[in-house]
User: What shape does this take?
Amino acid sequence: MNVLGIETATSVCAVAVCRNSTIPAFQEQDVPNTHSERLLPMVDGVLKQSEIIVSELDAVAVSIGPGSFTGLRIGLSVAKGLVFSTKSKLVCVSTLEALAYMAAEDGLASTARILSVLDARRDRVYCQLFERDGAGVKPSCEMRLMPVAELAGEVGDAPLTLIGTGTQAIVNAAVVLEVGKKWHSVPKESNRSSARPVALLGATQLSKGYIEDVASAEPTYIMDFFENR
Assistant: This one.
């Protein structure tokens, strides 16, 4: 099974190939506002590294949000174009779930609970709490957009691992949260979004038949467009 993973929900533009539950190739670049220029050449690059031609793709998995409105639209548009041209399947992966899965899969989480957080500016984060579930993760609540200062009341004071671009805002507010010592952060360099978990989760969802209608698939924005500007 060959699945291409695309991640463009944040400043990171990333592409990975999952072939039979392994990642033979991936590329990731953190250069804001250049996704439209970099994404297709990166797709071409990882396919060549994996020795896969585009017609051999079984599915394209794309990080569907929440995140940057522009980045999400670029990623989904490219994913749809590839699916149309190859007659493969479209799989949409939650950006927050991909972060939590990466924390569990890469051994970054030191706790059973993982809180994925993306910076939404103005002291707010997109967030969702997950529980480790065997080799994967499962959501404990719905994804939310909320002020950093309200997080503690929502997720409780039991230990958890933070991952994502919103981590620094939470660490800075630890005194306000009054639970800082129980909230563990992954290494700073690991807070970047990645296409590797998107590809792996995409392969899992494809095997379970969780595919999307190409014509109607839309990003998960949460925030109103005009708030995001």
Observations:
- The chain is about 35% helix and 30% strand.
